[in-house]
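Here is one chain, start to finish.
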Amino acid sequence: MTKKFNQLIWLGAGNGTEPKGLIELAETSLLVEAREDAFKNLVNTFLNSKTVSLKQSVISTHGGEVSFHQYNLPEFSALCKATGLIRLFPGLRLANLDTVVSEGIVDLLTEAKVTGKDNLFVIDIPDISLSLLQQLDEHQFLNRFCQILLVGSSEALFLGASNSAELINFMLNHGFYLAAEDKTDPDLPWLTFVSNPLWQKLKQAQQQETELNKQLDIQHKKLVEQHQQAEQLKKELSLVTESNKNLYEQMSTATVVGEKKQAELKDCLEQLDTANKKLVSLSENAKRQENDFILLQKRAELLEKQLERANEDNSLFRSQQLANSSLFELERSIKELFAQQMLQVQHVANALGQHVTKTQVEQQNSLRSFLGLQQFLQHGERQLDIGEWSIQADTLNCLIKLLERNSYDLVIEFGSGDSTLVIAKTLMNQSSSLHDIAENGRLELAKISNLEQTQPVHYAHDLPARVISFEQSKEYLNKTKQALNEHGVAGFVELILAPLVPVEPSCNYDSGQTHLFYDCITKLKKLADILSERQSNILVIVDGPQSPEQDAFVRYAALPSIINVFSAHKLHIVLDDSKRDGEQQVITKWLDLLEQRGLFYTVNHWPTVKGAALIEVTP
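Its structure:
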């Protein structure tokens, strides 16, 4: 049988059987397969073939390290995460995710020495088929194939992949037409594209036209430049002619003027001689007037001294009058000022009495809670310094009780500080208690295994720390890190510097205005991927951010950011400072959002000085 193609390049060859009859059409074939089991089958099948070469390699657009997703249906293993494919195969599950070294498509074809144009190219890698074609077109490899077979689908099967319409559109725009469509598998049809022989001629004609247009533009520019140069020479010649004419006229005028100047110079010399004679006479008169001026100057100095003495006497008299008037005005002003101050003192005393009466009970409660918190932290370590803007001691005590009553898989904190240290300290105490119980043998092995999930273990594919704390200020983040290290609980916390950025549209309560929140979405999605295989208990503490523009809704984005990625988990959300007007509005908007999402929730308010709200959300 006559061979139709010089060379066959088959990516994702599988068993080398589908589509059928391809290997018989080519003089030589290169079958490339990434999966080890499938590659072994290819080796057994083509062991004695002299025209078929085999290569086990993961192919990508540029080569280098890539993520390789292996599914329970091995033939669908790919570089990208399956999306639309899951709807076709609901039982599809990710079996393994490895980082492997891939080979770039251009390097592969260069090594395979693909030359000429009578070659066949088969791509059974639907997740990156379009990007591979684009890479081939960029490096002038696409025109080396007269026929290309691709796996298509009505929708994208993988994240970032293309559908059949996009593949067809690309091929049509690059000199190929759809010659056949094999719908043996209607969900995954094979598309056969054949090179259009007129395409290259059209491209050559277009290139020739472009080159001719460029040459025409160059010639046109040269003609324009020559014309401009000629016009410039004409202008310069005209200017030179005009200049010569002006010089001749100026020279004639200068000759006439020179003759006149000579006559005027003679007259000037005669006038100068007369002026010298008058100057001698005027000098003698000036000397006489100078003597008279000296006498007048002496008389003026005497009169000035007499005037100064008179002004001094007059100023003293006026000062005495002003002093008498000022003393009267000062006495009247002092009396009025004293009366105003007495009235202000009365108002201040009344207001101070009311304030002391109102805050006495709150101060006693705050002091009692603060002393209880200090007792919790004092075990031979530095005491916790609770600042004016930190979560208050009574709220921290409520947090400790909440942590002791519940076993949380993860704690997410918006705004780091004293609460970060208290949470980490509580988790460390819980971990120590569980260890002692396990040592004494007072719990069954199954219970111990379940409870030990609260310890800060570092897993290869699991949570790096029990507490994830986002902080907008580098200064406060460093202070918190120092406190965690001093108390020996840094291993329980991952501190993340997250500057304020515009929130995503889904996290913005008002479509007419964009608000700011922590840059945390990427990290939250990573955590959600880690917890996707189990339902977890998550505690969220909202004590930030500090709004740069005093935005009352600056904390609103916390809840939509959380439920967008953790809606399948049990959530406890604590909002600090809930007595403030802004936080009251935020709570109202949160509850409306939970109603819209159809999530069950309960709300409890802690009896603290500044107020704190606990919202429990269950899927």
